[in-house]
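Q: How do we represent a protein-ligand complex in a form that can be generated token by token?
A: Start from the inputs.
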Amino acid sequence: MNSDFDRRQNILKQRYGAQAAPENLMWNDHVEHLLNHRSVRAFLDEPLPDGALETMVAAAQSASTSSALQQWSIVAVSGEQKQRVHDLIAPTVPAGRIPWINEAPVVLLWVADLSRSNAIAKAQGTEPVVHDYLDAFLMASIDAALAAQNAAVAAEAVGLGFVFLGVMRNAAKELAALIDLPKYSFVTFGMAVGRPDPKRPSGPRPRIPQSVVLHHDHYVHRNHETHLPGYEEAYLAFRDMWGMDAKTWQDAVHTSATSMKYMKGREKLRATLAERGFRLL
Ligand SMILES: Cc1cc2nc3c(=O)[nH]c(=O)nc-3n(C[C@H](O)[C@H](O)[C@H](O)COP(=O)(O)O)c2cc1C
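Then emit the structure tokens for the protein with flavin mononucleotide bound:
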């Protein structure tokens, strides 16, 4: 693979499969970096390089944030505290499903955080009534997700790898207690980050065709039904290449939508959020 063109065509092919790859992308190095993303679940046994965390946080803080309110925080856990987080979450997932928490030198916990705003409002002697509403919770969660994605892109740009960890919500209540979270805050997800192990690489995972996710002017109902067969081929080829069981994407979607086992404790989330101060009106 020696030319930019060949390398980029290969990335596109891996992302969409041969048939569905768009042909008119406006390539540059930054776009190539984004399209070449893959989650990393195997890390070298080494600490984060000096300045990596600060670089990721600066990138995170450079993401857009609703009304500049910056209603998110990160708790970076390492060493014994990371072990405690692992031990809390491990029983909620099938055996062997989260070794990456142990392998990564740091796990970042991304917090949707209304606690600062709440305290600032109360310090003026007023009730932060807006925080009772679902929209405030959503705003903080969106801010946390955008910040995390910026940090993720920065991590990849300096040669690190990461995987997001929704499993953190499996034991949301206990995790909040473990890291001393204040009320009006909540761990949306985690992120294991470290130096990828080149001996255990991962690859770009195929995505559904653009024609399924991109609608012009009006939503085209059930358009996935005509566009998915080609995707399943690419999806199965990816699973085969990386030694995963032969399951179609629609099988995975079906299980995630119909099996309560998939919730793994997250069915208690509303109650936990209520205890943490979120009324979600
Ligand atoms: C919010 C969020 C939570 C995730 N949680 C987990 C997780 O708990 N465990 C895991 O192995 N991967 C997790 N992932 C990673 C996804 O499985 C992964 O992004 C997806 O399969 C696509 O693969 P790619 O990131 O390599 O393109 C999560 C991703 C997101 C966005």
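The pocket of flavin mononucleotide is lined by residues 37-39, 163-167, 189, 205 (CB under 6 Å). Strands lie at 72-77, 106-113, 161-165, 185-194.
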